[in-house]
Amino acid sequence: MNITTPTLLLDKEKALRNISRMVDKTKRSGVRLRPHFKTHQSVQVGEWFREQGVEAITVSSVHMARYFADHGWNDILVAFPANVLEMESINELASRIKLHLIAVNQETVVALAKGLQHPVQLSLKIDAGYHRTGIPASNYAEIDAMLALIQGQDKLQFAGFVVHNGHTYKQTYAAAIRNIHNTSVDQLQLLRERYKAQFPNLQLSVGDTPSCSILESFEGVDEIRPGNFVFYDITQQHIGSCAFEEIAVCMVCPVIAKHPDRGELILYGGSVHFSKDVLVQKDGNAVFGRVVELTDKGWSEPLEGFEVVSLSQEHGVVRVSAEQFDKYNIGDLMGVLPVHSCLTADAMRGYLTTEGEPIDHLSGVR
Amino acid sequence: MNITTPTLLLDKEKALRNISRMVDKTKRSGVRLRPHFKTHQSVQVGEWFREQGVEAITVSSVHMARYFADHGWNDILVAFPANVLEMESINELASRIKLHLIAVNQETVVALAKGLQHPVQLSLKIDAGYHRTGIPASNYAEIDAMLALIQGQDKLQFAGFVVHNGHTYKQTYAAAIRNIHNTSVDQLQLLRERYKAQFPNLQLSVGDTPSCSILESFEGVDEIRPGNFVFYDITQQHIGSCAFEEIAVCMVCPVIAKHPDRGELILYGGSVHFSKDVLVQKDGNAVFGRVVELTDKGWSEPLEGFEVVSLSQEHGVVRVSAEQFDKYNIGDLMGVLPVHSCLTADAMRGYLTTEGEPIDHLSGVR
């Protein structure tokens, strides 16, 4: 491989194993896996899921839904409060696939009812404790009012309740993550009890990567929607969702300067490549990636004695112990496991597999 | 304008005024303006500079140099430690434009000397206190050694010393920024004294946006290379480089959900749109943007009572005072001034002028 500029390497074997582990787990649990494709945003990676039997997917924008619909996916949930300004694109999609939308407010339901020309599945987004967006799980008055609005509309088919427990990302103990998951399932069960007479087929859907990685079964829900697990990253390793060897993407960056006076290497690789998410480690240090050694077939576990301490637009600064400083020279390539693989992939706009095959990303094919 | 998804608005009149103010200042000071084009990365915005007499530019990658060389720019400094792995592209560029590179280490000079097929200008990057990259200004032994290596090579023409005082970004007092600038100019003057007999035409180049915005004259240097000033952003306003009304770019984001229970609005606009740079304000609060009111011809000053408190991949969360909460409804568009316009422009991959004209960005034309 002739890599000369920052490049996102993808280990296909690791990604396939991550996918099959989750597929197997959902089969054993009897729940539907509707993986979130916002992590990879790639038609080719999508095919790896399809080959393992996945038929229904999650995306985070209408634009992303259109991209995957154009490549043969026809059961797509846009897991983002419906953007009623995009009614034209929504109608176009709803005319050709089974499109699922979500709503948080009555205004959205009214606007959809007014603008839709084709039927869509509509779920209500429930806030089970993350507090980013969603109707508080105990706000029955609001849920009742929204369901009443939906029921009168022939273009809106109520599908169920959707939760995203993003607060699992703040945890590093499996028990805490299980508690968050179980608390949200309990809340969803109360909703099912309340509405099942009226909607006997209502579906309960959850799905953050930490819960879906740590739990072994998903009793009480019908569907899970994890996304990040296909690649993982050092944030997920920190949380406990994965081991380092399960991380399937690695940035490759040229070393462009060395500062022996302060033990720092400068990488060609900055916030326009990695994005700028940061991981505060258990020792309190903030890092922007973990350095690994590149090998013939991929990369090693993280190396001790290297810290990616800052990123500016195109530069990365790596602090290196005295013992390790001479390991890298100018013109060498350094491997860095990303803090947040979804954002790094979006910034990089494409992948190169460890076998040398270029792989598309939606943001590179606009 | 029919905006339905996150869009980066560009007020051309403000950008033209920002450019002409800097052009006038450099004319009065008798220094060369070599603006950094990494902020806008746009052929059209580049033309606005050219129309005001700018002929020499700065970029941050060989890829960016090629883009502008392909559009008629033929005096380009890549203000980034030369990436010797890109020798083929460097040679191709050096064959057709006046290409300037920079070096920090002897290894780089040796690799360039070995690989270059066409002459390039080479400057040494000096660290005058920022400590990201560069040779410490007082490390004469290293500078002597590098100049000795350069002198023997017919493809390397020593151009001078280049400094980037990125530590001005940590300041909010004009006097502190002037001190940083003056300290670096003093250090550069010592270098000029030391090497002027040998290199009578050596050039001294500085150029962060805070210094270049706050200072009125640039005695002692030959060239300035600010970039961000074409657009500015709320970080620059916080530093004191600009007023709010000089910020020339504004994100426009649909409101997609409302949470009256906790006074929050959810925007379609997250870290894949804004990037994830954050500004810690004087009150200690971290913000990811400042909300403005969109008007027929652009936008207002920032509104009181709104705080962009978090960004996830596609969501932005805006905390709103009780008095302002009803000002926005689902489906409305909200204006947000970015924290860091360079990264937002790179993430957005294109602009729309307030007159409705689409403008390219390199990252959208790959």
UniProtKB/TrEMBL annotation, chains A, B:
<feature type="domain" description="D-serine dehydratase-like">
    <location>
        <begin position="248"/>
        <end position="355"/>
    </location>
</feature>
<dbReference type="InterPro" id="IPR029066">
    <property type="entry name" value="PLP-binding_barrel"/>
</dbReference>
<protein>
    <submittedName>
        <fullName>D-serine deaminase-like pyridoxal phosphate-dependent protein</fullName>
    </submittedName>
</protein>
<comment type="similarity">
    <text>Belongs to the DSD1 family.</text>
</comment>
<dbReference type="GO" id="GO:0008721">
    <property type="term" value="F:D-serine ammonia-lyase activity"/>
</dbReference>
<keyword id="KW-0456">Lyase</keyword>
<dbReference type="GO" id="GO:0036088">
    <property type="term" value="P:D-serine catabolic process"/>
</dbReference>
<dbReference type="Pfam" id="PF01168">
    <property type="entry name" value="Ala_racemase_N"/>
</dbReference>
<dbReference type="InterPro" id="IPR026956">
    <property type="entry name" value="D-ser_dehydrat-like_dom"/>
</dbReference>
<dbReference type="Pfam" id="PF14031">
    <property type="entry name" value="D-ser_dehydrat"/>
</dbReference>
<dbReference type="InterPro" id="IPR042208">
    <property type="entry name" value="D-ser_dehydrat-like_sf"/>
</dbReference>
<dbReference type="InterPro" id="IPR051466">
    <property type="entry name" value="D-amino_acid_metab_enzyme"/>
</dbReference>
<dbReference type="InterPro" id="IPR001608">
    <property type="entry name" value="Ala_racemase_N"/>
</dbReference>
